Amino acid sequence: MSDYEGVEDTLFIPLTARVNVSKKFPEYFLDPKALEMEELIKNKQIEKKSSEYTMVANVARSYNIDQMAEEYIGRHELCNIVNLGVGLETSYYRIDRKDSLFYEVDLPDVIELREKYIEIGENEKYIKGDLFTLDWCNELDTRLPTLIIVSGVFQYFHEKDILDFIKNVKEIFENAELIFDATNKFGIRYCNFYVKRTGNKSAMMYFYIEDAEEFARKANCKLIECRGFYKDALKILDKKLGLYSKISMKIADKRKNAMILHLKL
């Protein structure tokens, strides 16, 4: 396996978190496929430099997006679920897919890594490409209801890039929704600090949102939901979480340091 630099090295941060939390808190989040891939994690600095809070934070994003994807599939049955910048995400194996069609999109070397270690499932397709060029749109039926998921990716770009992306996608799809995670200005500073601590000093993050409604207006979209990360984690793990983790989660949700936006395009 090649050594990764920059943004691609961050592939292993969420994988490490999913493995760690699946072992420690399976009642909240269990990812058997991630556990099968534990041997891929060569950078032991990630776990050493991560707190309980940062591990759960990574997983809470996946937990909530899984829920939102299942709700979407439940409303539409036959639909597209498009994971842009999919990395080593294993959501295909965690959620109730029904008749949905899954498209996993990332840069060629990342998809090659997936092909080596994560078998392609039924009704699933891997696509090599840059999410911003929109070539991946040619690989699916854009007339079907489509949920586009961008998890842990937009932060590495600038607001103009994101707004241009949304504008272009709206012109292609007849009926699409977008789910993505974001932080506020404080949150982006914390994320940059954390990524540097894990040994990656080249994957800087830039994009943040202070007001979800205002961003939706800029994007000319309807804001369906702006969801915090930790409501269910705090409820399910109340007796098991450390005090620092619980306080940090409550503050993060209250101040919207981390959020998931759901837009109607």
Automatic annotation (TrEMBL):
Keyword Transit peptide set for record: no
Keywords on record: Methyltransferase, Transferase
GO BP annotation list: methylation
Entry GO MF terms: methyltransferase activity
One Pfam family matching this protein: LCM
Descriptive protein name: Class I SAM-dependent methyltransferase
Organism: Methanobrevibacter olleyae
